[in-house]
Hints:
- The chain is of the alpha+beta class and about 230 residues long.
- It has one domain.
- The chain is about 15% helix and about 45% strand.
- The chain contains two helices and 15 strands.
- It has helices at about 45-70, 125-135, and strands at about 10-15, 20, 35, 40-45, 75-80, 90-100, 105-110, 110-115, 135, 140, 145-155, 155-170, 175-185, 200-205, 215-225.
- Strands 1, 2, 3, 5, 6, 7, 8, 10, 11, 12, 13, 14 and 15 form a 13-stranded antiparallel β-sheet that branches.
- Helix 1 (about 45-70) crosses helix 2 (about 125-135).
Amino acid sequence: MKRCLSLLAILFVTACGKISVAPEATSGNGAIGQVRSPVAAVEALSDVRARVTSLCGKLQIADENMRANFLGRTFNLRTERADCARASLGSSDSAAVLGLQSDKLVYVAGSTSTQVETHLEGRMAILCKALSTGLRSPHYVGTTAMYYSVIPCPSNARLTCVTIETGIRNEAGNYLIQLVDEYAVENNASAGSLIGMVRSHRRSGQGSCTVIGEAETTVVSLLSVQ
C-alpha cells in the first residue's frame, strides 16, 4: 500500500499516493537578444554563494529521493508554448514515467525522454559544480557567459527562483543573450519527499524571433505525482 504524503500550503494530497501541485506562475525575461560587454569574473558574494549552496543541496536531496522512492512512478506534466509575440501556441499534458538512462534520471513519455534537472545534470548543475572550483559572476565557460540569480520566489518564499541567462560571444567579443532559463524549485521542508524537485521550468530562446526582447517560450510545470 502506498503511504499518503502530508504536505502543507504548496502541495495538496488529493488521494493516497497522488500528489497534486499548485502551479507557480513564472514571469518572462526581456534579456533575449541583448548584448553584454565582457567584464572580469569576480568571486560570488558570500550571500550569493550561500543561496547557490543551499539550492544545490536541495537538488541533491531530490536526486537521492527520486532514485530511492520515485523510479517507475508517473509524473504528470503540463507543457505550454508561446511564439515571439507571446501569443499562446496551446498547452498539452503528459504522463511521464521516471526512469534511468545511463544512470541519469529521465522522464519517459512514449518514445520521448527528457533529462531531469539535478545537481549533476542540467543548467543549474553548472552552478553546483562551480562551487568546488570557485563560483564566480559572471560564470564563463568557453565562449559562453552565464549570468544568474538565486532568490526566494517573490510570490512564494517556499520556492527558490533561479534565473540563468546564457550569452554567446560574438565576433566583437561581446555576449549575445540567446537563452534564458527560469526555475521554481521546492525548498521548504513541508514539501516532504518532493523537496528539491523542479516545480516549473520556463525556457526562453531567440529561435526565429528577429526583434530584441522577443522570444519563443516553453514552460513545463509539474502538476502531480502518482
